[in-house]
Amino acid sequence: MASDFLQPEKSLIHRAWHNIPDFFAKKDTDSSHQRHELDQFIATTFSAGSAYYYVLDFFNLEKPMLVSPAIESILGLNHKTTTIQSIIDRGHPEDMPFAARAEETALSIIKHRIGIERVTDYKISYSGRLRVADGSYRLFNHQAIILATDDNGGVTKTLGIHTDISHLTTRNNYKLSLLNLHGQESFLNIDVFDEQDRPMATQSVFTKRELEVLDLLSAGRTSIDIASIMNISPNTVKNHRKNILKKADCKTTGQLISKCMNEGLI
User: Would you tell me which CATH number, out of the four given (3.30.450.20, 3.40.50.150, 3.10.20.520, 2.120.10.30), belongs to the domain 3-190?
Assistant: First the structure.
Protein backbone atom coordinates (compact mmCIF):
# COMPACT_ATOMS: atom_id res chain seq x y z
CA MET A 1 0.00 0.00 0.00
CA ALA A 2 1.24 3.49 -0.76
CA SER A 3 2.74 5.08 2.37
CA ASP A 4 0.82 8.33 1.88
CA PHE A 5 -2.46 6.75 3.00
CA LEU A 6 -1.38 3.97 5.36
CA GLN A 7 -0.02 4.08 8.89
CA PRO A 8 1.82 0.72 8.82
CA GLU A 9 2.22 0.52 12.60
CA LYS A 10 -1.53 0.14 13.13
CA SER A 11 -1.61 -3.65 12.93
CA LEU A 12 0.15 -6.73 11.65
CA ILE A 13 -2.20 -6.86 8.66
CA HIS A 14 -1.49 -3.26 7.71
CA ARG A 15 2.26 -3.86 7.95
CA ALA A 16 1.89 -6.91 5.70
CA TRP A 17 0.28 -4.75 3.00
CA HIS A 18 2.96 -2.10 3.45
CA ASN A 19 5.77 -4.63 2.95
CA ILE A 20 5.00 -5.18 -0.75
CA PRO A 21 6.05 -1.89 -2.43
CA ASP A 22 4.07 -0.61 -5.42
CA PHE A 23 1.43 -3.34 -5.15
CA PHE A 24 -1.30 -0.82 -4.38
CA ALA A 25 -2.31 2.13 -6.53
CA LYS A 26 -0.96 5.64 -6.02
CA LYS A 27 -4.34 7.23 -6.70
CA ASP A 28 -7.96 6.22 -6.42
CA THR A 29 -10.00 4.91 -9.34
CA ASP A 30 -13.60 5.56 -10.22
CA SER A 31 -15.43 2.28 -9.77
CA SER A 32 -18.88 1.32 -8.48
CA HIS A 33 -20.02 -2.07 -7.28
CA GLN A 34 -23.72 -2.24 -6.51
CA ARG A 35 -24.83 -4.71 -3.87
CA HIS A 36 -26.99 -6.75 -6.24
CA GLU A 37 -24.08 -7.07 -8.68
CA LEU A 38 -21.82 -8.31 -5.89
CA ASP A 39 -24.45 -10.75 -4.68
CA GLN A 40 -24.71 -12.25 -8.16
CA PHE A 41 -20.94 -12.40 -8.59
CA ILE A 42 -20.37 -13.99 -5.18
CA ALA A 43 -23.01 -16.65 -5.82
CA THR A 44 -21.05 -17.90 -8.85
CA THR A 45 -17.50 -17.41 -7.56
CA PHE A 46 -17.39 -18.24 -3.87
CA SER A 47 -18.49 -21.13 -1.70
CA ALA A 48 -21.85 -20.79 -0.02
CA GLY A 49 -22.50 -20.94 3.70
CA SER A 50 -22.93 -18.61 6.65
CA ALA A 51 -20.92 -15.71 5.27
CA TYR A 52 -20.59 -11.98 4.81
CA TYR A 53 -18.68 -9.90 2.29
CA TYR A 54 -17.02 -6.49 2.30
CA VAL A 55 -15.38 -4.19 -0.24
CA LEU A 56 -12.05 -2.84 1.01
CA ASP A 57 -11.09 0.56 -0.42
CA PHE A 58 -7.38 1.15 0.19
CA PHE A 59 -7.84 4.89 -0.12
CA ASN A 60 -10.46 5.02 2.63
CA LEU A 61 -9.20 2.52 5.20
CA GLU A 62 -10.56 4.50 8.14
CA LYS A 63 -14.06 4.82 6.71
CA PRO A 64 -16.97 2.34 6.84
CA MET A 65 -16.91 -0.16 4.00
CA LEU A 66 -19.62 -1.59 1.79
CA VAL A 67 -20.51 -4.64 3.90
CA SER A 68 -23.29 -7.19 3.56
CA PRO A 69 -25.96 -7.01 6.31
CA ALA A 70 -25.17 -10.63 7.29
CA ILE A 71 -22.19 -9.36 9.30
CA GLU A 72 -24.59 -8.17 11.99
CA SER A 73 -25.89 -11.64 12.86
CA ILE A 74 -22.47 -13.29 12.40
CA LEU A 75 -20.01 -10.91 14.05
CA GLY A 76 -22.43 -8.54 15.77
CA LEU A 77 -21.14 -5.52 13.82
CA ASN A 78 -23.32 -2.81 12.32
CA HIS A 79 -22.94 -3.19 8.56
CA LYS A 80 -23.33 0.56 8.08
CA THR A 81 -20.38 1.46 10.31
CA THR A 82 -18.01 -1.51 9.89
CA THR A 83 -14.41 -0.65 9.02
CA ILE A 84 -11.63 -3.07 8.07
CA GLN A 85 -10.05 -2.49 11.48
CA SER A 86 -13.23 -3.56 13.28
CA ILE A 87 -13.07 -6.89 11.43
CA ILE A 88 -9.33 -7.27 12.07
CA ASP A 89 -9.99 -6.63 15.76
CA ARG A 90 -12.25 -9.73 15.78
CA GLY A 91 -9.32 -11.96 14.81
CA HIS A 92 -8.00 -14.47 17.32
CA PRO A 93 -4.67 -13.15 18.72
CA GLU A 94 -2.97 -16.50 18.05
CA ASP A 95 -4.00 -16.42 14.38
CA MET A 96 -3.03 -12.84 13.59
CA PRO A 97 0.68 -13.50 12.86
CA PHE A 98 -0.35 -16.19 10.37
CA ALA A 99 -2.96 -13.95 8.71
CA ALA A 100 -0.43 -11.15 8.34
CA ARG A 101 2.18 -13.49 6.88
CA ALA A 102 -0.41 -15.02 4.55
CA GLU A 103 -1.40 -11.57 3.26
CA GLU A 104 2.21 -10.57 2.62
CA THR A 105 3.06 -13.91 1.00
CA ALA A 106 0.01 -13.78 -1.27
CA LEU A 107 0.79 -10.27 -2.48
CA SER A 108 4.44 -11.17 -3.01
CA ILE A 109 3.55 -14.23 -5.12
CA ILE A 110 1.10 -12.23 -7.21
CA LYS A 111 3.64 -9.47 -7.84
CA HIS A 112 6.80 -11.52 -8.36
CA ARG A 113 5.59 -14.93 -9.60
CA ILE A 114 2.21 -14.44 -11.25
CA GLY A 115 2.65 -10.90 -12.53
CA ILE A 116 0.74 -7.77 -11.63
CA GLU A 117 -0.99 -7.80 -15.02
CA ARG A 118 -2.82 -10.98 -13.94
CA VAL A 119 -3.76 -9.69 -10.51
CA THR A 120 -7.50 -10.10 -11.13
CA ASP A 121 -7.18 -13.75 -12.19
CA TYR A 122 -6.56 -15.15 -8.71
CA LYS A 123 -8.45 -15.68 -5.49
CA ILE A 124 -6.55 -15.59 -2.18
CA SER A 125 -7.69 -18.14 0.40
CA TYR A 126 -6.73 -19.02 3.96
CA SER A 127 -8.52 -19.62 7.27
CA GLY A 128 -8.53 -18.09 10.73
CA ARG A 129 -10.63 -17.68 13.84
CA LEU A 130 -12.90 -14.67 14.37
CA ARG A 131 -14.84 -13.62 17.45
CA VAL A 132 -18.55 -13.88 16.63
CA ALA A 133 -21.63 -12.16 18.05
CA ASP A 134 -21.91 -14.39 21.14
CA GLY A 135 -18.29 -13.76 22.10
CA SER A 136 -16.94 -17.18 21.11
CA TYR A 137 -14.43 -17.84 18.34
CA ARG A 138 -15.30 -19.72 15.17
CA LEU A 139 -13.16 -20.78 12.21
CA PHE A 140 -13.72 -18.79 9.01
CA ASN A 141 -12.39 -19.23 5.50
CA HIS A 142 -11.11 -15.91 4.16
CA GLN A 143 -11.26 -15.42 0.39
CA ALA A 144 -10.34 -12.25 -1.48
CA ILE A 145 -10.09 -11.05 -5.05
CA ILE A 146 -9.04 -7.79 -6.68
CA LEU A 147 -11.98 -5.67 -7.81
CA ALA A 148 -10.28 -2.57 -9.20
CA THR A 149 -6.83 -1.40 -10.28
CA ASP A 150 -5.36 1.78 -11.72
CA ASP A 151 -3.75 2.13 -15.15
CA ASN A 152 -0.50 0.70 -13.81
CA GLY A 153 -2.13 -2.36 -12.24
CA GLY A 154 -1.94 -0.97 -8.71
CA VAL A 155 -4.72 -2.31 -6.51
CA THR A 156 -7.38 0.08 -5.25
CA LYS A 157 -10.25 -2.17 -4.11
CA THR A 158 -10.63 -5.79 -3.07
CA LEU A 159 -13.63 -7.98 -2.30
CA GLY A 160 -13.39 -10.14 0.82
CA ILE A 161 -15.63 -13.07 1.78
CA HIS A 162 -15.60 -14.66 5.23
CA THR A 163 -17.39 -18.02 5.41
CA ASP A 164 -18.01 -19.81 8.70
CA ILE A 165 -16.58 -23.32 8.28
CA SER A 166 -16.59 -24.32 11.94
CA HIS A 167 -19.41 -26.78 11.26
CA LEU A 168 -17.02 -28.57 8.91
CA THR A 169 -13.79 -28.33 10.89
CA THR A 170 -12.38 -26.54 13.93
CA ARG A 171 -8.76 -27.18 12.96
CA ASN A 172 -6.93 -24.57 10.95
CA ASN A 173 -4.25 -25.98 8.66
CA TYR A 174 -2.49 -22.58 8.59
CA LYS A 175 -1.88 -22.79 4.84
CA LEU A 176 -2.37 -20.26 2.05
CA SER A 177 -3.71 -20.94 -1.43
CA LEU A 178 -4.00 -18.75 -4.53
CA LEU A 179 -6.59 -20.19 -6.89
CA ASN A 180 -6.87 -19.27 -10.55
CA LEU A 181 -10.45 -18.19 -11.27
CA HIS A 182 -10.27 -19.59 -14.81
CA GLY A 183 -9.21 -23.14 -13.98
CA GLN A 184 -5.56 -22.62 -14.81
CA GLU A 185 -2.53 -23.25 -12.58
CA SER A 186 -2.93 -22.42 -8.89
CA PHE A 187 -0.65 -22.21 -5.85
CA LEU A 188 -1.93 -24.54 -3.13
CA ASN A 189 -1.22 -25.26 0.55
CA ILE A 190 1.66 -22.83 1.00
CA ASP A 191 3.46 -22.91 4.35
CA VAL A 192 3.96 -19.17 4.81
CA PHE A 193 6.42 -19.62 7.69
CA ASP A 194 8.76 -21.92 5.76
CA GLU A 195 11.50 -19.69 4.39
CA GLN A 196 12.72 -22.53 2.16
CA ASP A 197 9.33 -23.16 0.58
CA ARG A 198 9.15 -21.90 -3.00
CA PRO A 199 5.53 -22.47 -4.03
CA MET A 200 5.01 -24.15 -7.38
CA ALA A 201 1.97 -23.58 -9.56
CA THR A 202 0.01 -26.76 -10.24
CA GLN A 203 -3.06 -27.73 -12.20
CA SER A 204 -6.18 -28.51 -10.20
CA VAL A 205 -6.67 -32.21 -9.50
CA PHE A 206 -10.32 -31.72 -10.43
CA THR A 207 -11.75 -31.08 -13.87
CA LYS A 208 -13.82 -27.96 -14.47
CA ARG A 209 -16.98 -30.08 -14.36
CA GLU A 210 -15.93 -31.69 -11.09
CA LEU A 211 -15.27 -28.27 -9.59
CA GLU A 212 -18.80 -27.23 -10.53
CA VAL A 213 -20.17 -30.30 -8.75
CA LEU A 214 -17.92 -29.63 -5.77
CA ASP A 215 -19.12 -26.05 -5.46
CA LEU A 216 -22.75 -27.20 -5.49
CA LEU A 217 -22.01 -29.87 -2.90
CA SER A 218 -20.42 -27.25 -0.67
CA ALA A 219 -23.63 -25.23 -0.97
CA GLY A 220 -25.59 -28.20 0.41
CA ARG A 221 -27.14 -29.31 -2.88
CA THR A 222 -28.24 -32.91 -3.28
CA SER A 223 -27.36 -35.07 -6.28
CA ILE A 224 -30.87 -34.55 -7.64
CA ASP A 225 -30.47 -30.77 -7.30
CA ILE A 226 -27.08 -30.86 -8.99
CA ALA A 227 -28.39 -32.97 -11.86
CA SER A 228 -31.18 -30.47 -12.46
CA ILE A 229 -28.94 -27.39 -12.17
CA MET A 230 -26.24 -28.80 -14.44
CA ASN A 231 -28.71 -30.46 -16.82
CA ILE A 232 -27.05 -33.86 -16.47
CA SER A 233 -28.33 -37.23 -15.27
CA PRO A 234 -28.23 -38.27 -11.59
CA ASN A 235 -25.95 -41.16 -12.59
CA THR A 236 -23.48 -38.70 -14.09
CA VAL A 237 -23.52 -36.72 -10.84
CA LYS A 238 -22.92 -39.96 -8.94
CA ASN A 239 -19.88 -40.71 -11.10
CA HIS A 240 -18.54 -37.19 -10.62
CA ARG A 241 -18.92 -37.50 -6.84
CA LYS A 242 -17.15 -40.85 -6.86
CA ASN A 243 -14.23 -39.45 -8.86
CA ILE A 244 -14.00 -36.35 -6.67
CA LEU A 245 -13.87 -38.40 -3.47
CA LYS A 246 -11.16 -40.62 -4.94
CA LYS A 247 -9.01 -37.70 -6.12
CA ALA A 248 -9.35 -35.96 -2.75
CA ASP A 249 -8.66 -39.18 -0.85
CA CYS A 250 -11.85 -38.74 1.17
CA LYS A 251 -14.49 -41.26 2.19
CA THR A 252 -17.46 -38.99 2.89
CA THR A 253 -18.87 -35.79 1.43
CA GLY A 254 -18.50 -34.04 4.79
CA GLN A 255 -14.82 -34.94 4.93
CA LEU A 256 -14.44 -33.80 1.31
CA ILE A 257 -16.01 -30.37 1.83
CA SER A 258 -14.07 -29.83 5.04
CA LYS A 259 -10.77 -30.66 3.36
CA CYS A 260 -11.44 -28.63 0.21
CA MET A 261 -12.59 -25.51 2.05
CA ASN A 262 -9.79 -25.65 4.59
CA GLU A 263 -7.22 -26.09 1.82
CA GLY A 264 -8.74 -23.37 -0.33
CA LEU A 265 -9.79 -25.64 -3.18
CA ILE A 266 -13.33 -24.20 -3.26
Answer: 3.30.450.20
